[in-house]
Design brief:
There is one protein chain. The protein has 144 residues and is of the alpha/beta class. Helices cover 40% and strands 18% of the residues. It has helices at 19-22, 27-40, 53-65, 78-81, 83-91, 131-143; strands at residues 2-7, 44-49, 70-74, 97-101, 123-126. 38% of the residues are buried. The structure holds 1,3,4-trihydroxy-5-OXO-cyclohexanecarboxylic acid. 1,3,4-trihydroxy-5-OXO-cyclohexanecarboxylic acid binds at residues 10, 74, 76-77, 101-103, 105, 112.
Length: 144
């Protein structure tokens, strides 16, 4: 089975972007971690990033159409704002979706405390850095 690992806006800047908050790993490093863990779990990955909300909607729909094993999504700031992403996750139900944020969004500014995706996701992992992605893969593998 294939797990879609989707990344939203500004996550292409990881490594140089506010490393005190997001750490020193690049998105390519996180992709490598995910590939390795997925191989152990006998899963394949589609790892993607876009700064555009609609691209993320398209990819959620694609994961549904292609009968993926699940989705791990770090929606970046769109997680706090996007009814379109909320609706897309609902539209592919029962495809399991796990939301990931590198930082602990609840320990940050109030505008980051709300998630539009968490209420329609299987679960949400935040504050654990890049490990959140591989933990989400483990959780999806356990459901298959
Ligand atoms: C983030 C948290 C969001 O609030 C922020 O807009 C991001 C990154 C994280 O991974 O911690 O872009 O999703």
């Amino acid at each position: 089975k294939t797990i879609y690992i989707l990344n939203g806006p500004n996550l292409n800047m990881l490594g140089k972007r506010e490393p005190g908050i997001y750490g020193g790993k690049t998105l390519a490093d996180i992709e490598t971690d995910c590939r390795k863990r997925a191989a152990v779990l006998e899963l394949t990955t589609e790892f993607r990033q876009s700064n555009h909300e609609g691209a993320l909607v398209d990819w959620i729909q694609e994961a549904g159409e292609k009968n993926a094993g699940g989705i791990v999504i770090n929606p970046g700031a769109y997680g706090h704002t996007s009814i379109a992403l909320h609706d897309a996750v609902r539209a592919v139900n029962p495809l399991p979706v796990i939301e990931v944020h590198l930082s602990n969004i609840h320990a940050r500014e109030p505008f980051r405390h709300q998630s539009m995706i968490a209420p329609v996701a299987v679960g949400m992992i935040c504050g654990l850095g890049p490990m959140g992605y591989t933990l989400a893969l483990e959780a999806l593998a356990a459901r298959l």
